[in-house]
Specification:
single chain, 80 residues, alpha+beta, SH3 type barrels, 5-stranded antiparallel β-sheet, 1 helix
């Protein structure tokens, strides 16, 4: 089974138009994620990501519900 995890976009690097990447915060961890295939993303947006690729954009309330659930299970550290 695959799991997409919500994360908050901290910065976007669009210097290569063929591979737009973002620094995304997942709980206490920051990772590089490809956001090439998601329209209209901006710093501060939340995305669902799986294996380094953004699958969709989600609103902050939905992302927070998932993050709280993962933190309650002990799977991630909560966002500070």
């Amino acid at each position: 089974m695959c799991l997409a995890v919500p994360g908050k976009i901290l910065s976007i690097d669009d210097s290569d138009p063929d591979l737009i990447m973002a620094k995304v915060q997942f709980g206490g961890i920051t990772q590089d994620v490809c956001v090439q295939w998601i329209d209209d993303v901006a710093v501060g947006d939340y995305i669902m990501a799986h294996v380094g690729t953004a699958l969709s954009k989600v609103d902050e309330a939905d992302a927070q519900i998932m993050l709280d659930s993962l933190a309650a299970m002990g799977d991630i550290d909560p966002i500070n």
